[in-house]
Amino acid sequence: MKYKIYTDGACSGNPGPGGWAVIILINNEIKEMFFGSEKNTTNNQMELLAPIKAIQKFKKKSEISIFTDSTYVRDGITIWIKRWEKNGWKTSSKKPVKNKELWKKLKNLSSKHSIKWIWVKGHAQDKYNNLVDELAQEAIKK
What we know:
Distance between the termini: 33 Å
Oligomer: single chain
CATH class: Alpha Beta
Helix content: 25-40%
Radius of gyration: 15 Å
Strand content: 25-35%
CATH superfamily: Ribonuclease H-like superfamily/Ribonuclease H
Shape: globular
Number of helices: 4
Strand order of the largest sheet: 3-2-1-4-5
CATH architecture: 2-Layer Sandwich
């Protein structure tokens, strides 16, 4: 079975109260939608927490396409993380990687599945990306 997952994170203030949201689709139909919030967080932490929460739903190895409007998440998990690990979790400017524990968790969960990371333009014509953004915004208010 192939899954499509849309994820998003949002923050009111940065740092401030934040929300994350997930939509899981099978055959282009919504199977599940869920979201959560944190009292004091950052936008990047919420962008990372959304795919973590999504992937945790899958107990068996699955084929997943994750759609995100965050280049931070997509590039971080597909490109930057290899360098960070090689450099002892330091950035190219020798500073500690922010959100290291979330990155480690995301990598560990991702390694158990076949995942394609797909960037989509935020606030554009993608109805599921717009919906997941609305859910993340709603989560902040909860």
